[in-house]
Specification:
It contains 23 helices and six strands. The chain is α+β, with helices and mostly antiparallel strands. Pfam families: DYW_deaminase, E_motif, PPR, PPR_2. It comes from Coptis chinensis.
Length: about 475
């Protein structure tokens, strides 16, 4: 009661007076809830360590506390201790640990948890099944995600179907996602508002504009679901990615709710891709009225100018950004090798193996050019010599991560790269060539979707 009403200090004093060693699990979890909300997990761990009889609820509560505070490694360490000296994990524990794996996009760790779930008989529980679908998808293995969904015997609910639909959409399998949605309707499972976010996103990634509009109407007229900001943003993205920028803008202006940062940001991103500077200015101005410190708005507008060769305007926006003290989000890519995450920035020279990474990438760069690759120097959004642009392109963060992955893993190993920004046109084209040259599948997750590169092509069909 005290922890939930904000009186955490009072609760702690009561605990201390009643001797922590006699604290029951219910009291512990209530206290933990209070500490988690405050973002202060250390006192909770002290209480956990002092408990005499730590049952599965206490262990799970502590693991969830770590996860919710972003302390994934601590959650993993505690779970390993639980397997050694603690009680048998239940479905809630395993679902929490699979969420940790999803957060880290760690397939290897997730597979270990999957093994525990199979041995403990919890694989067929709804919470674990749903978490497995999401974990494999976020780790880049949509095949395993679909395998769990199709073959594990569990009572799938709306969340299960929705998770699979969203996963397929994010991996560029829009038609499969739509097929699954139609099957869901056919067997009588009612979609919710999140399901519709998933299926409209599937239409977006597949370029099915008319079908996306039909689902937007179906949601309201048949299932009586009132659109949220998320649905409106999906529709803006649907039009924008297809190059229907004016239609996207008109949709925003007619929305019955006030457009938010995501709505204007979606339009701005599409304007940058399709090089519509005039509409980009409108979107950026409206976005900055809502969020003046939004670095993405400045960057996208500057990049839109650069893409059209308007270097002076691009420089002006970047100066404005600097004068206002707005810091740009730096692009980075990372790859996990043997339980260690290696992070790379563009032209990164901080990695201990930087020399061999650069040599490997230089050889690849030369080889893919021989195979017909032409660097897209328009992707370098600064007014520089072509030779300098070429070198910059060869050292984009995802390319360095790929080079490191190639020298750090056995042949035929799938490389899984994560990126915090949208993959640029040049990297997308280059990785297609690299996948063919090295004979490997390369999976890249950017801010919106997964790209599966194999044998010189990408799962997105060059539509992203």
């Amino acid at each position: 009661m005290y922890s939930k009403s904000g009186g955490l200090d009072i609760a702690q004093k009561i605990v201390e007076r009643s001797l922590t060693t006699n604290l029951n699990v219910v009291s512990f979890t209530c206290l933990l809830d209070g500490y988690v909300k405050l973002g202060d997990i250390n006192p909770a761990r002290k209480i956990f360590d002092s408990l005499k009889d730590r049952d599965v609820v206490a262990w799970t509560a502590m693991i969830v506390g770590y996860f919710q505070n972003g302390l994934n490694n601590d959650a993993i360490e505690l779970f390993q201790s639980m397997l050694t000296v603690g009680p048998k994990p239940n479905n809630y524990t395993l679902a929490a640990m699979l969420s940790v794996s999803s957060s880290l996009a760690s397939i290897d760790h997730g597979k270990q948890i999957h093994g525990v779930a199979i041995r403990s008989g919890e694989e067929s529980s709804v919470s674990v099944g749903n978490a497995l679908v999401t974990m494999y998808a976020k780790g880049g293995s949509i095949q395993n995600s679909r395998r769990v969904f199709d073959h594990v015997s569990w009572n799938k609910d709306t969340v299960s179907w929705t998770s699979m639909i969203i996963s397929l959409a994010q991996h560029g399998l829009g038609e499969e996602a739509i097929e699954l949605f139609e099957k869901m309707l056919a067997i009588g499972i009612k979609p919710d508002h999140i399901t519709y976010v998933g299926v409209i996103s599937a239409c977006t990634h597949a370029g099915f504009v008319e079908q996306g509009q039909n689902y937007f109407s179906l949601m309201q007229n048949v299932h009586k679901i009132k659109p949220t900001h998320s649905h409106y943003s999906c529709m803006i993205d649907l039009f924008g990615r297809a190059g229907l920028l004016q239609q996207a803008h008109n949709f925003i202006e007619k929305m019955p709710v006030e457009p938010d940062v995501i709505a204007w940001g979606s339009l701005l991103s599409s304007c940058k891709v399709h090089k519509n500077v005039e509409l980009a200015k409108i979107a950026a101005e409206r976005l900055l009225l809502i969020d003046p410190e939004n670095s993405g708005a400045y960057s996208a507008l500057a990049n839109a100018y650069s893409a059209c060769g308007k270097w002076d305007d691009a420089a002006r926006i970047r100066r404005l950004m600097k004068d206002r003290g707005v810091k740009k989000d730096q692009g980075s890519s990372w790859i996990q090798i043997k339980n260690k995450v290696h992070v790379f920035g563009a032209e990164d020279g901080s990695h201990p193996q930087k020399d061999v990474i650069y040599i490997t990438m230089a050889k690849l760069w030369k080889e893919i050019k021989k195979r017909g690759f032409v660097p897209d120097t328009d992707a370098v959004l600064h007014d520089l010599d072509e030779e300098v642009k070429d070198q910059i392109l060869s050292r984009h963060s995802e390319k360095l991560a790929i080079a490191f992955g190639l020298i750090s893993t056995p042949e035929n190993t799938t490389l899984r790269i994560m990126k915090n920004l949208r993959v640029c046109n040049d990297c997308h084209s280059a990785i297609k060539f690299i996948s063919k040259v090295v004979g490997r599948e390369i999976v890249v997750r950017d801010t919106t979707r997964f790209h599966h590169f194999k044998d010189g092509s990408c799962s997105c069909g060059d539509y992203w």
